[in-house]
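queue> pop job 88
queue> type: inverse folding (structure -> sequence)
queue> payload:
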């Protein structure tokens, strides 16, 4: 069964699994363990069954490695994998369940989500992670160490073979740069602007 749907797409994207590759369009289903790949100048938004919202930037490779949602039993889990590129994630209903696992795995660290809106993206081999909304919190850890982020614009960087850096409040220019990496190009749709805590709309 599908675990989510592509709700918006600008550019080109594919889903692949077990050697089979298919093109994605708005309305396409997303299935467990598929590798989602986006092309140049592409933005893709998908919404999972629990209303988790994920936006992928261009040249991104990601996957939903595990997903289960049982609201009547107050349990669920969602495990995402990022191999390349950048994303924005806004947690859905799983974050409010009593028994849950909600994580984003990358090549340099694992991000534990606690109900949040955040950005994550590679800059070369370094991974940057920052909270975009007030009241958000998450953990970032690897085999060497870990940090907790709490509060709007708190961020950290993780390099291969090193512990996550101490949390810092990202400057406005870096938040803006990160937002642009996951913002859609078509201004006929509003996009949430974390820098000014409002919806961006066409001029």
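queue> result:
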């Amino acid at each position: 069964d599908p675990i989510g749907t592509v709700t918006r797409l600008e550019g080109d994207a594919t889903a692949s699994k077990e050697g089979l590759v298919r093109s994605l369009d708005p309305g396409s289903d997303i299935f467990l363990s598929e590798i989602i790949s986006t092309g140049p100048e592409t933005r893709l938004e998908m919404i999972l069954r629990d209303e988790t919202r994920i936006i992928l930037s261009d040249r991104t490779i990601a996957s939903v490695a595990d997903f289960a949602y049982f609201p009547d039993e107050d349990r669920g889990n969602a495990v995402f994998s990022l191999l390349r590129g950048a994303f924005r994630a806004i947690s859905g209903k799983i974050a409010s369940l009593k028994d849950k696992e909600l994580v984003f795995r990358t090549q340099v660290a694992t991000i534990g989500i606690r109900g949040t809106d955040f950005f994550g993206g590679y800059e070369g081999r370094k991974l940057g992670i920052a909270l975009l909304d007030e009241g958000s919190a998450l953990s970032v850890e690897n085999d060497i160490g870990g940090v907790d982020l709490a509060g709007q614009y708190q961020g950290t960087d993780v390099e291969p073979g090193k512990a996550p850096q101490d949390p810092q409040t990202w400057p406005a220019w870096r938040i803006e740069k990160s937002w642009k990496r996951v913002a859609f190009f078509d201004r006929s749709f509003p996009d949430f602007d974390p820098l000014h805590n409002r919806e961006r709309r066409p001029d």
